[in-house]
Amino acid sequence: MIEPFLQIAADKNVKLVAVSKTHPVERILEVYQHGQRIFGENRAQEMQVKHSVLPKDIEWHMIGHLQTNKVKYIASFVQMIHSVDSLTLLLEINKQGQKYNRTIDCLLQFHIASETTKFGFDLSEAEALLKTAEFHELTNIRICGVMGMATFTDDKTLVRNEFKTLKTIFTHLKQTYFKDSDFFTEISMGMSDDWEIAVEEGSTMIRIGSLIFGNRSYNI
Ligand SMILES: *Cc1c(COP(=O)(O)O)cnc(C)c1O
Prior knowledge:
- The protein is α/β, with parallel strands linked by helices.
- An 8-stranded parallel β-sheet has the order 7-6-5-4-3-2-1-8.
- The longest helix is centred in the C-terminal third of the chain and has 22 residues.
- The chain starts with a helix and ends in a 7-residue tail after the last helix.
- Pyridoxal-5'-phosphate binds next to strand 8.
């Protein structure tokens, strides 16, 4: 069911990433035909295959943990990588961007959940990265904001507080490191179970999978 989310994205002025991981290209095309253009995947090779057969005006967003050696599969076309969680990864994205003569939009992923399994920086790690000389020499990446995943829980207060934390991190980074950037504007937060809270807390991009495509046949 894509229509309600197209409406929500328009009404709330947020970008909608339709998370199509595990779903076949026929399903993606159906959603595309309703007007959706941004799709999110979490595996590089799966994204590469889908990109090769689907319409070229789709914007592909990498939302899952990305291994350095997989960047090459998506670097020629990926629109945004939400899941940047190390300087090593950023260096590789920059290198691949140079190879294809493009600038790749990136978000810094923050670990805001209480679960230990989720990837991402904490604030001090990200600040350490932003202060390195290497970071300042990168020519083919653009840091466009932050991304985070809340704890998978029914405790709405916890989820809300985690989103508030991400917003605070965003504001701090913007004021401290990206004051003059026209690009550092995005807060990617909110999924099928918690997008309403995320939007209330200032999300600019929601990543919706199951509510659009139904359940995934395998869990990744
Ligand atoms: C799978 C996934 C989503 C979408 O999850 P749903 O609960 O199906 O909406 C969003 N963000 C990330 C990082 C994901 O891996």
